[in-house]
Amino acid sequence: MKIAVLGAGMVGRTIAIDLSSSFDVTSIDKSEGSLTALKLYDPLFKTLQFDLTETDRYNTLLQPFDIVVAAVPGFMGYNTLKGIIEAGKSVIDISFSPEDMLSLDSLAKEKSVTAIVDCGVAPGMSNFILGRYNEEMKIENFECYVGGLPKIRKKPFEYKAPFSPVDVIEEYMRPARMKENGQIVTKTALSDIELMEFDEIGTLESFNTDGLRSILDTMGHIPNMKEKTLRYPGHANLIIALQRSGFFNTMPVSHQGQSVNPLSFTASILFNEWKLSPGEEEFTVMKVIVEGMKVNKHKKIIYSLLDRYDVNTQTSSMARSTGYTATAAVHLLANKIFDGIGVYPPEKIGSNKKCFEFVLNYLKQRNVVWRKEENLV
Prior knowledge:
By secondary structure, the chain is an alpha/beta fold.
């Protein structure tokens, strides 16, 4: 079976390498440097240099492939996914784009393809967990806390981005939607800062971000839902200061006779400040909480993840926890464990116990281990 992986960045590269042990994989990207990194891993690795924004050429580009994985930056995500579906190819997508991916469901059904979207760690695994327990209990509350952080804290931001700083900044700017007492409410991103304790890590801060996405529609019966991002304490206030000072504005300003886009300028500065150095250790920490009634008892289910940089393979934890969730989904399609036609967010697939357990076991085999607690409340 032939697999195309669109995007050869840190996560896309991890996806391609993992899939290459089972499939005939080609990695496609515009960046020669990114593709060269795969050749350094294996000189025989198949790569193709191509501008993925040229979606009108996808019919020809993707014709040889059976399944496609989309691992492009968020701003490209929707058009890339649409182009793949229009080319008649089933796809696993991890792009955190602001558009509603479920709006492509009719197109996917028309083309008789499967599109599994938001299939990373969060959104992704958090959705799988919620979908599974929605089948077993009457859920009253869902919470997700997630962050990727460097092991070594460096002032002032104490943060490194495993993907484009522009995507991170957009996450910090986009209003956060959540459910409170049965109503969808919107709060400012970076609001409701609170301190939390995590085993082996210590104190982190959490704040509101817009991460619930599809479950606001697919799980609308759950009265309380929220997702919060985790950072080292103090990070949010630094970002708020930049935002209030105009560094994230998109309206050009004049500087020494030249027009400058503040957001583009800020992103270029932060690209170097936030870039993970080769071999730099980091970790992904996540906690998913599901509460509700199960067999006439009020129960709280907690899934926790602490995944660290893999020194042996030189793979970041964020690439592992995100990428391997996506590659598990590729196997779901390739092995016909899941064969629905249309656009599916992970919660719809996680509702199937066989699919859910397959993904958990697949991750465990790669030492991405989710730990479960179940308590009476």
